[in-house]
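User: Can you help me understand a structure? I only have the sequence.
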Amino acid sequence: MKFLRNATLALTPLSPIHIGCGEDFEPTSYVIEDGILYGFDPSRAVLPEKLAKRLGELGDKADLLGIQRFFRDHRSHFMPHADALIPVAAGLAADYERQVGQVANRESNGNRVFNQLFVERASHTGKQAYIPGSSLKGALRTAMLDGINRGQRITDPDERRNSARLETRLLQGDFATSPLRLLKAGDLMPTGEVDRQVLYAVNRKKDCVLDRQGQERQPRGIAARKECIAPGQFRALQSLLTVHDLGALEANEKSIPAEGLRPTNLARIAGDCNRYHLPRLLADIRQLDQRGMLNPAWKRSIETLLAGELKALLDSGRAMLIRLGRYGGAESKTLSGDGVAQIKIMEGKGPDGRQRSSFQSTTKTFWLAAENANDQKHLIPFGWALVEIDPQADLPQLRAWCEQQAQARPDMGTVRARFAEAQAAAEAEKIRQRTEQAAIQQAELARQAAETERIRRQASLSQAMREIEAFIEHFTKRAEQLAGRKERPNGADHQKAGALARTALEASDWSQEERTAAADAIETWLPKVVAVDIKDVRKKLKLGMLRGNP
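Assistant: Let's start by predicting it. Here is the structure, written out as tokens:
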């Protein structure tokens, strides 16, 4: 009979953690202002008509550099529509202002290479970062395998090059009988608002290598921009670890893992993790410190924590030191022991043009978190975290360190308050624009309806009434143009009135009703446009005769 044992895990990040999700912020989906990255969906932004037209023109011309500059230069229109607000490294903010919309370099064929300025996103659900359970289980898996192997030298060449073969032997079976199947690690989800930051991932050589000029040779890897879970957040993420306890059930070759390998003892699992990861952390600290690369404040604080209240937790198996995510180095994913690790090192192309490689026990470079792409002295390794098992008592030393780290980061409460105000203003502007557009559309519909009615009415009128309607329409527009002023007599409009009167008198097919309508139109509208004496108009244009009066 299977039994389930559950343990609550609480994670405190000790250094920046980056676990990618396959998504990027691009210069057309984010802007940076005052050290904060605002990530948004550009289709949701409401632009003034002039700016929307300009962006459309840049898109039609496929002007990628111009589009990048457009988003930067008009960032205030996009920021209120952000769904992600993330602090960025100081150097990265400066690089954004300097590099966006610029040509990075030119290829030998003359083609321009643009500054892409992509920011690789961390795993997230909605607006919160999280750590997938698969990443946690991967870290536990490596440590458990290392605990089983106990540093034994791998003599089989196939096992040294094929980790699957080695794992099958160590676990005494394939996937069906793997003891790792008995271990279920849930996603590490936020217990509150998890602080994130965008940092550079920079590549630095482990050993000093000089070029012909005596200068230290640096790796060719380009600094990457990574969204990370920020270090120093006390018990920021939480998960449930479930262990299937098979009790005294005997193993069979088809479905049940060997009894001695079953992960029933969480303290043992923690012990494997700590025996595996702690020496690696200390080795990295020592080597980076010797190279003068390590952030001295981070080094002092981590060493103090490990020698202080964390020591008892780690020694007793109540907590695990683990390394998660990208840039942990191949050493954090290979087994310990002389001649065990076989890491493929790419060594460039040989004289024949083919890619050269070799298998070695360690990598040649570090990938480190940096505030500035060119920083050489204040770097921090990625991915280190403390995971407590069923945490009970408070850890005042760790909590105090976390509070200290938080003070060095931007006050996101203030940032979000300002953002909320800007968002409210943007929403009000969106409503105003919608109302205005609705009014314009309504007016246009009314105009179209009136024009339709006019055309319909015109079609139903006699030729005489059409001439009268045309006269009234002309004089109406002319009166609006004059705005209270009047023309001198005997001008074009005065003559137009006279022509209508003559036509009405002389045409044999005009009815008396139509002649009267012509007289009324002249008497009403001519004085509004031309400075005339109405009595004189009645006499000269024979308006009385038009009305049937002798």
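Now, to help you interpret it: The longest strand covers residues 3-13. The chain has a mean pLDDT of 82. Let me know which part you'd like to focus on.
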